[in-house]
Specification:
The structure holds 2 protein chains of 2 kinds. Chain A is built from 12 helices and 18 strands. By secondary structure, chain A is an alpha+beta fold. Chain B is globular and about 70 Å long. In chain B, about 35% of the residues lie in helices and about 20% in strands. Classes of the chains: A alpha+beta, B alpha+beta. The structure holds flavin-adenine dinucleotide. Chain B: Keywords: FAD, Flavoprotein, Oxidoreductase.
């Protein structure tokens, strides 16, 4: 049981080469802030990349930042802030939900888990902002892909290809991300008292308008009070975020209010309050209750999410709230059973998508398909891809699929 | 590159041509199989017209089942396949092979579903890029990535090339606007990736497919995000005495937190050619002309127009016009949009390059191009997606002068080498195809390329789909799979561990 903590890419290469030679599985981690997600990895040794740290290039005018994979996300966010820039995809912080601290996590982990936040609808996820990587494959070979410029179609986009691979294809040593100017200001329009179906309709109207809403979430009765220190109270709250330059935000907000005049009572949350609110939505604070009740993260067709949740409520005791206009549903299973079969069967009936069990007790994690099982042809293709990167199955074996990747 | 070496045609396949054509007619009955030389001529090249090759046979399937059967048939018999959309590729991605079935997707031309609540369109791959916008514009929506070829190029081709356009600076490339695809693997299996939901499940195969140039699968359906049209758009037309000042202006606009809807630059030769062609009123006494378009609500656009104008003045702009109406805005763009044909008027032929560089390197790269231009004795005009550093140098030459095409290609290769040298890449949006294939080692080590080829092996282990494109040297998958392990000793005594 050894934990390797290389501080330079060359040493990452040596460790993986050794592990490949010995066919010795490695658990790969940064800060371990997302260790609770995925199937428990059965590995004798750990490759801890948290010492492989440091920003190696940041050119604000070029909108680009490169860092060693183990660089703390918090360090990068602080640095970007100095130039009024940010990672526009707002990587979520799983810490609170999984019973850890806030503010942990490395930039490599951001890519490996393909994190995103409420701005997903407009700004995409980590995969939409990654420009290039250096990494070590399970073959024990150091390779790079992509580059440092935004427009690049030279060769396969392996930087995207490894996004969301949870350390099963390669150990990243360096990542290069596109960064963007942070919005000058933001305001959130809150529509009160809507039931899920009306909230879905209101969000669809808002997102389909020219108000350029960057985030749309709905917190049903009871959930609303759990965010932003309870300032919303308990009443259902439908949240619409408008960001940009001051005059533009004011104008677009006015436009939204007109569009939704008949929807319900409205309230506005300014800059800092709005930010705090979205941070809590992003980090799934409503379910960060210190328990290990199963929590699902569902990716669905936004407009049918509420119908899915209604159907699920007939079959299981769940709490739910919606981000991404419904495209992201967070579910807490109140009876303690994950009900994977029920959840996944219903998803297929409501326009497709997938479910990831992001929190559960150890025994549940070991006995449930954490990630969505794929149809045979796709599963076989994924397995072939894994084998091309990691033929000896030494990188996070079993994290995604039992007995394999 | 005129000495382009393509994979050696398979004699057995060539010998069985008649049989293969007959079998294709069984799979795709009716008009869908073209084997007469006259009919096949239309498909012998794509937008990179310097290269021509008649295929073994052209097949135009209409259903996914037909595509699946064609690929399975070819896979079982070791027959190569080249997919083709509208044939506008500028890198020879759709160039036929003598021994390959050319699968043309143009009959897949229906928009299958328009879903406003989810803001997506589901289309067959042969629908044109502009066709998607046409399908939704009556409701005020549009599809954002807008290659200049949008009237002709297919959405399937866009996925295969990860195409960009003027609006990609603000709204992203094809990869950022595609939510799902259905595709057929070389073994005939049909696979769906993503859909109307935002995150694809499992490995990001959609990310790998986008920009894979027809080497991994044939796309048979595409789901894209549509956006509401911005309320207004206005443009500034700004002239600078030097390209340095123009480049600095671009950097300052971005540093001010402004991401324009479009930001394009032209150099003196391009300005003059465009002005002579469309009379857009471009200033002729400047070295660099910048078009900056701001879109959004009127108040925002007005606010940003004055901000950009001030930045331009600070950077020494000598002219700055602001569009007062839609017609004027279109006039500003007319010259830029007609830049290619405009250059076509001042030179018998031109060769369009597509490197990307870190923006700050613009002055150095333009200077490098000028000296290369002298060295080769060929002119060059530059249009430039200034916001994201994507250059389109147009090399002027005359194909009828013996040796000039070779010279133009050598010049182009040198420009791309220069792009890589300053930290950029070989191609920003046009793809590697056959054109930049042999330059790949400029950017990637053999290990990098081997890992990319291994991805190919996961999709198409026999290298039957579009071989001879992208990779300079094809290596067998069995050979690529071999591992050279250093078993036995711990080669890293100094690595901290506990
Ligand atoms: C005048 C002109 C202007 C252009 N401007 C731009 C521009 O601004 N931005 C830009 O990015 N590009 C531009 N292009 C390049 C070109 O239009 C794009 O690359 C376009 O996406 C190609 O689409 P297509 O349907 O013509 O594909 P094709 O040329 O037919 O094929 C391109 C590649 O895609 C593959 N392919 C096509 N369809 C499929 C499918 N269904 N499944 C799998 N593989 C497939 C082919 O094998 C080939 O490798 C321009 C081209 C021209 C001629």
């Amino acid at each position: 049981m050894t934990t390797f903590t290389p501080a330079i890419p060359e040493d990452v290469l040596s460790v993986v080469q050794w592990a490949a030679g010995e066919e010795m599985p490695l658990e790969i981690c940064g800060h371990g802030s997302k260790r609770g997600i995925g199937r428990p990895v059965q590995a004798e040794h750990t490759l801890d990349l948290s010492q492989l740290s440091g920003v190696t290039l940041y050119e604000p005018a070029e909108l680009v930042l490169s860092a060693r994979a183990g660089t703390p996300l918090a360090e990068i966010e602080t640095l970007l802030k100095l130039s009024n820039q940010e990672l526009a995809f707002e990587p979520l912080d799983y810490g609170p939900l999984l019973g850890g601290e806030r503010g942990r996590g490395t930039i490599g982990g951001v890519l490996a888990a393909n994190l995103a936040g409420p701005r997903r609808l407009k700004a995409g996820a980590a995969r939409d902002h990654i420009l290039g990587i250096s990494a070590v494959s399970g073959r024990g070979e150091a390779f790079k892909a992509g580059g440092r410029v935004v427009k690049n179609v030279t060769g396969y986009d392996l930087s995207k290809g490894v996004a969301g691979s949870w350390g099963t294809l390669a150990a990243f040593t360096d990542v290069t991300f596109k960064v963007l100017p942070a919005a000058e200001t933001e305001t959130t329009l809150v529509v009160r008292g809507l039931l899920d179906d009306l909230a879905a309709a209101a969000m669809a109207v808002a997102m389909g308008s020219s108000a350029e809403v960057s985030s749309a979430a709905h917190l049903p009765e009871g959930i609303a009070k759990t965010v932003a220190d309870g300032i919303l109270g308990s009443e259902p709250a439908t949240l619409l975020r408008v960001e940009g330059f001051g005059p533009s935000v004011a104008y677009r907000l006015g436009h939204l209010k007109q569009l939704l005049a008949a929807a319900g009572e409205m309230q506005e949350l300014e800059h800092e309050t709005s930010k705090a609110l979205w941070r809590d939505v992003r980090d799934c604070i409503p379910f960060a209750d210190g328990s290990d009740l199963p929590v699902w993260r569902l990716s669905l067709a936004p407009a049918s999410a509420h119908a899915f949740v209604l159907a699920l409520r007939m079959r299981a005791a769940v709490s739910a709230f919606y981000d991404w206009q419904g495209g992201l549903v967070w579910l807490r299973m109140e009876a303690g059973e994950p009900e994977a079969e029920t959840v996944r069967t219903l998803i297929k009936q409501f326009g497709g998508g997938h479910a990831t069990l992001v929190r559960a007790s150890m025994p549940v994690r070991a006995s449930t398909d954490i990630f969505e099982p794929q149809p045979p042809a796709l599963a076989a293709l994924s397995a072939r891809l894994k084998a091309e990167f990691d033929p000896k199955n030494i990188l996070n074996p079993g994290r995604i699929v039992a007995g394999a990747h | 590159m005129s000495g382009l070496v393509m994979p050696k045609p398979d004699a057995a396949t060539l010998a069985r041509r008649a049989e293969i054509v007959a079998d294709m007619r069984i799979i795709v009955p009716g008009e869908g199989v073209v084997d007469a030389v006259n009919g096949m001529r239309a498909f012998e090249s794509d937008g990179l017209t310097a290269y021509r090759q008649l295929p073994l046979v052209v097949v135009l399937p209409e259903t996914v089942a037909q595509v699946s059967r064609i690929l399975k048939y070819c896979n079982d018999r070791n027959i190569r396949v080249v997919p083709r959309g509208s044939g506008t590729s500028l890198s020879g991605g759709a160039l036929p092979l003598e021994d390959a079935v050319l699968v043309v997707m143009s009959r897949f031309n229906r928009v299958l579903e328009i879903d406003y609540p989810n803001r997506v369109v589901v289309a067959q791959p042969g629908v044109t890029n502009l066709g998607i916008t046409h399908a939704v514009e009556q409701e005020g929506f549009y599809y954002a990535p807008d290659p200049s070829s949008q009237i002709a190029c297919s959405i399937g081709g866009n996925v295969a090339e990860n195409s960009g356009g003027v609006h990609c600076l603000k709204y992203g490339l094809t990869a950022n606007n595609v939510l799902g695809i259905e595709m057929v693997l070389m073994n005939g299996e049909v696979v769906r990736l993503g859909g109307k939901h935002l995150d694809a499940e499992g490995y990001d195969l959609l990310g790998i497919m986008t920009g894979s140039e027809g080497l991994l699968g044939v796309v048979t359906e595409v789901t894209v995000r549509i956006l509401k049209k911005p309320e207004t758009a206005r443009a500034l037309l700004i002239g600078f005495p030097t390209s340095e000042e123009g480049g600095q202006c671009v950097a300052d606009i971005i540093a001010a937190g402004i991401i324009p809807g479009g930001m394009e630059m032209m150099d003196r030769p391009a300005i003059h050619a465009a002005e002579a062609f469309v009379h857009a009123g471009y200033p002729l006494d400047v070295e660099a002309l910048l078009i900056v378009e701001l879109d959004g609500p009127g108040v925002e656009v007005d606010h940003l127009i004055s901000a950009v104008e001030a930045i331009a003045l600070r950077n020494g702009s000598t002219t700055c016009r602001i569009s007062q109406n839609e017609q004027e805005r279109m006039t500003f763009w007319a010259g830029r949009k007609a830049a290619f044909p405009a250059v076509g008027r001042i030179s018998p032929d031109y060769y369009c390059m597509d490197g990307t560089i870190p923006r700050k390197e613009l002055p150095r790269v333009l200077a490098g191009m000028r000296s290369l231009s002298e060295q080769y004795g060929l002119g060059v005009a530059n249009v430039f997606h200034a916001g994201d550093g994507n250059l389109h140098p147009l090399i002027l030459y005359d194909a009828n002068v013996p040796g000039e095409l070779d010279k133009a290609e050598a010049f182009g290769s040198d420009i791309l080498r220069l792009c890589v040298e300053v930290g950029g890449v070989l191609t920003g949006e046009h793809g590697v195809g056959v054109e930049k294939r042999d330059l790949m080692p400029e950017m990637f080590s053999q290990t990098d390329l081997d890992q990319q080829m291994r991805v190919k092996c996961a999709f198409d282990p026999n290298h039957l789909l579009n071989p001879g494109k992208v990779f300079p040297q094809l290596r067998r998958c069995a050979e690529l799979g071999r591992m050279h392990v250093h078993a036995g000793q711990l080669a890293f005594p100094d690595i901290p561990r506990f």
